[in-house]
Design brief:
- By secondary structure, the chain is mostly beta strands.
- It has a domain of 75 residues.
- 8% of the residues lie in helices and 41% in strands.
- The structure holds zinc ion (2 copies).
- The site of one zinc ion has 6 residues, from loops.
Length: 230
């Protein structure tokens, strides 16, 4: 059992928290992105370990539903699928057509491998995604991956400190820069979540706006963590 830095007890982990997902789809139909999994203290909810999993789904495995006139599925055979995104894009197609991706289901996975002393524990995520083409075509795909528990670390702040460090035990606001090209995100600031938390976060963003590096980024997000904001 790990020891929680916040309540200082050996605790069980809450590994059921929903993955944080960031996805994009390229013109050739490949879905890429990240799924962040976080394990919290089962007692006080402090974030204890996190891992960012790389998402990648091939366009050949993203498929439309089978056509309504398809023959009924044969018992024991894999389920029938319709046209894949790869096939769809290879067809004579509006060159202006654009793709969008959204996850329709996100869940955590948890498994053990091996027995006895050598037993390894894996935490992961499973996603179901839906890709929509502007021509009206819709297809679905799925992805799953996991990481060994010992390979998970506390999530780090911009300064490299674990987020569950003592100095940020109280509720905080995180100002995050999500990169336009899906190359992760940068933490701009960690601020105490006072009633003015959001206002302060907005000020930090305004301050960062002119700096180099900021220009290549697109969206700024404000997340709250570390418990309820006061
Ligand atoms: Zn705790
Ligand atoms: Zn299309």
């Amino acid at each position: 059992m790990p020891r929680c830095p916040d309540c200082n007890k050996f605790v069980s982990l809450d590994s059921e928290t929903e993955p944080e997902v960031d996805l994009e789809v390229s013109d050739d139909g490949t879905v890429t992105g990240t799924a962040m999994i976080v394990n919290n203290c089962g007692d006080c909810g402090t974030e204890m370990a996190a891992a960012e999993l790389e998402v990648s789904i091939d366009p050949e495995s993203i498929c439309a539903p089978p056509p309504p006139d398809a023959p009924p599925p044969v018992e024991g055979a894999p389920p029938a699928v319709g046209e894949s995104l790869e096939e769809h894009l290879a067809k004579l197609h509006d060159p202006e057509a654009s793709l969008e991706v959204e996850d329709t289901s996100r869940e955590r996975t948890d498994r053990y491998e091996g027995k006895g002393r050598g037993q390894r524990h894996y935490y992961g995520a499973r996603l179901e995604v839906e890709v929509t083409c502007s021509c009206g075509w819709v297809g679905t795909g799925e992805w799953t991956d996991d990481v060994q528990a010992s390979g998970m670390d506390p999530r780090r702040t911009k300064e490299g400190e674990p987020m569950n460090a003592k100095r940020i035990r109280k509720p905080h606001v995180l100002v995050v820069h999500r990169h336009e090209r899906g190359e992760g995100s940068t933490i701009l600031a960690v601020l105490p979540a006072t009633r003015r938390g959001r206002v302060m976060a907005a000020e930090v963003v305004a301050e960062e706006r002119g700096k180099p590096g900021f220009m290549s980024c697109d969206v700024v997000e404000v997340q709250e963590f570390g418990g309820r904001a006061t």
